[in-house]
Task: structure prediction
Amino acid sequence: MLTVDLRSLGLRNGDRVLDLGCGEGRHLHAMYYDAKVHAVGVDLGFDDVVKTRQGFERYPDVSANEGQSFSLAVGNALSLPFEDDTFDKIVCSEVLEHIPDYRAALDEIERILKPGGTLAVSVPRYWPEWICWKLSPEYHNTPGGHVRIFNAGGLQRDIENTGMHFFRRHWAHGLHSPYWWLKCLRWNHRDTWLPIRLYHRFLVWDLMKRPLLTRILEKFFDPLMGKSVVLYFLKRPTI
Result:
């Protein structure tokens, strides 16, 4: 389930790409199999890094192909172990809402992105997220939970202030917002309440089968109530 549109990243063979806050590796795996890239995944959680590694092991080994490799590390977005101007592309998806000092993370991203490089950032969209917060305090008060609700325009300006040039915005996962509203409505029974279990089954079916009807519905609902907003930037070349 991808949030970022890889076409907007413009992956090219030989690129060095970073998935910052890779989780279980959904975007890292997608980038790795989309082009012959040097893919790096970083996450604060060791267990997530392990699952990302296992995800690579489930697919045929293409690491022997010239110009293609991956590496994984546990790391903090506020102090990344990379030199300046290291990566051609960076994805930071559903991460910044967990970081109290997110502007420091943006400064680190700008530091390690090459001039002319592309950044894709996604965060929960304001009003679907606001509903979740109102329905359930536990939704965002759990350890490692969301510490803020972003206004997309404000986040865009924050990233532009680091020296980035904004070029695209879109929304994603319009069919997922009602699922999260149901979970927040019955937070203490989110694993057992039948409507939630049925909706989850529908989302898994949709992910695996990708039927035309739900693709059309998603195109319609993404701009209206997409759970995530995705922003794309270019780092201004050095003059």
User: Anything to note?
Assistant: The first strand starts at residue 16 and ends at 20. The mean pLDDT is 94. Residues 38 and 69 are 5 Å apart (CA to CA). The chain has one domain: 6-125+136-173+226-235.
